[in-house]
Structures are given as C-alpha cells and as structure tokens.
Specification:
207 residues, Tetracycline Repressor, domain 2, 2 domains, 10 helices
Length: 207
C-alpha cells in the first residue's frame, strides 16, 4: 500500500468514527444500528468490516479515538502560563461552555453518554473508559499537587482523592443536566469544586 492509499484508508476509517460519534452522542451506542452508521457515513458494509470486525470493536475504537482527542484538547487547554488552580477552573468551565467553540464538554462527553449504558454489556469497552477516566484524574491530581506547591490551591487533601471527588461531581452533574435540561447542576459542581480547592471544607471541619 502506498502512502497515499494508506492516508486515504485512514481518512475513511476516521470518517466512519466521526459519523459514529455524532450518532452515538445523540442516540446512545445501543440505540444506533449498523445500518444507520453505514447510511449516514455513506460507506458499504464491506468497508465497515474492513476496519472493524464487529460493532463492539467499532465501539472500542470510538472510545479510544475520543479519549485520545480529549487528551489533545487538555494539552491545548493547559498549555498556558496560568496557575494550576486557574487551569483546573478553566477546564471545569469547559464542562459548561468552551469559550473557543461555544460548546459544552459535558454535552459532547462519550463517557457521560456510554458509561452506564455499556459498562455491563462490554468488558473491553468498560476497561477503555475506566482507563481513560484514570488518566484524566491522574492529570488533574498532578495539577492539584502543583497548585499546592505553588500556593494557588489551599486544600491539603490528597491530590488523587480530591481529583476523583471533583470528577465524580462533574460526571453526576452532567447526567443531571441532561435530565433537567439545564446547566444549574454543572454550575453547582463548579462552585463546590472552587470551595474544595480553596480548602473550605477542611477549614470548616477544623472549627
């Protein structure tokens, strides 16, 4: 296969993944059939199975692609001279609305959409999502440690535990926002995260 052919093949595979992402985000993984993916992406069944042995394999590739893209977006978001605290708050704000795209990371989150839906259906997909969440919270924890050292984060709670608690809040808030069709839960999660980073909860316990 020539370089041009390889690039063309990869572009077609990515097109199927991008099309599938939009469909799954709207309808869920179980709710989207193979025929709809084929029709919307404009590829024959043979082309689909050339890249993906099954719908589950497609789902695994979809999640890996999403997590990889998410890491790239984080790199871009955190490639600034902001304090560690401000970097985290910028990220949390993106869950509500990304100023650069006017989009909400919560609304386009495959983990929010698929975690409860497929965790019991596919162990492979569950493991990919679990690893993706662990990578994210580890990066958040690294920033918390940095913030504690530089003084921008006053909380003395263990960084990994704090990162997990905050992520869990936003994950739950994203689900409630879908349920209520409003962003109030996300704003509440943002306020609670600010309080946790400033150590308010810790101070209250000391009194």
């Amino acid at each position: 296969m020539t370089t041009h052919q390889a690039q063309k093949s990869e572009a077609k595979r990515q097109h199927i993944l991008d099309t599938g992402f939009s469909l799954v985000l709207r309808k869920g993984f179980v709710g989207v059939g193979l025929q709809e993916i084929l029709k919307t992406s404009g590829v024959p069944k043979g082309s689909f199975y050339h890249y993906f042995d099954s719908k589950e394999v497609f789902g695994c590739a979809l999640l890996k692609n999403y997590i990889s893209d998410y890491q790239i977006r984080l790199n871009q978001l955190w490639a600034s001279e902001q304090s560690a605290r401000d970097k985290l708050l910028t990220y949390f704000q993106c869950w509500i609305e990304d100023p650069s795209t006017q989009d909400s990371w919560a609304e386009s989150c495959l983990i929010v959409k698929m975690a409860a839906e497929v965790a019991d259906l596919s162990e492979d997909m569950r493991l990919i999502m679990d690893e993706g969440v662990k990578r994210l919270t580890a990066r958040m924890a690294d920033l918390i440690v940095q913030g504690q050292k530089e003084g921008s984060i006053a909380s003395v709670q263990p960084a990994q535990s704090l990162a997990q608690v905050i992520y869990q809040m936003f994950l739950g808030a994203a689900l409630l926002s879908k349920l209520h069709k409003e962003k109030a839960p996300l704003y509440q999660a943002l306020d609670a995260s600010k309080a946790l980073l400033t150590g308010c909860q810790h101070k209250q316990q000391e009194k």
